[in-house]
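Ticket #4471: structure export looks truncated?
Reporter: QA, pipeline team
Priority: medium

Steps to reproduce: submit the single chain below to the structure queue and open the exported record.
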Amino acid sequence: SSVDLIKREFPEVVLIESKENTGFTGGNNLGAAVAKGELLLLLNNDTRLLTDVQPIVGAFTRSERLGIAGCRMEYGDGRLQCSMGYDHTPLRVLLSWLGLKRLTWLPSVFRREILSEDCYSSKQDDVAWVSGAFLMTRRRLYEQVGGLNDEYFMYMEDVELCKMVRMRGALVSFFPDVRIVHYEGSGKAWIGEQALKRTLRSYLIFTCKFYGTAPARRLRQAMSVVMRFRSLIYGVLGMAGGGAIAEEKRLGYRAAGEYLRGLEIPPQGKS
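Actual output as written to the record:
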């Protein structure tokens, strides 16, 4: 097994064996709990470093205000991967799922990610979030905010962590000089039904926590309509020769719409 291989080939590595799959959040929290350094680097296992991380380490040394740092990401084929973005307001979440984000003449409220390639070529001092696939932070800050919120199995935990850090007055910054390959998404036709449902649930947890239960309920209703609309669109594409993927998306979005209708809003959050 991979565990045995690491024990045998890399005895110097501190290996933490979990008896269950605790998702992205649980796995990173387990690692952070035994870390001893002043800085923590959350790094996905489907990544490859293309540069040294020293520019970011140096930035933490020079600036006490820096709380979280992200880097430039690329897909396996070299294309830019969007890895920073805007605050996830309920309206932005809803509009971003209309599928119009590539229409650059529309305002940024239709997008969750920053798409402009120019922004990824220069340092961004203060953004709402950076991707958890590569996220460096101060260990004391991570501990102060309670680490990644384990209510999220996956998706949105990095957005929430960045928001919590910014609420403490620290900066979330992007550094283009540090680069990685992040293979997630390369060659995938779409994320799949289960991942879609987990994403939608995470949106509602986040919305409830930071905007209140009433906005979360409204978002749930509106997103259910959007999911069914997307199912209809892929149904039409399927009839026009869209193939098996169009049919898979049609069924997946329809199931997601039904899932939202029956999903309870988490009790926490603003009233």
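Status: closed, not a bug. The export was complete when the record was re-opened. Leaving a note from the reviewer for reference: Strands lie at 39-43, 47-49, 66-74, 80-81, 84-85, 129-130, 134-138, 171-182.
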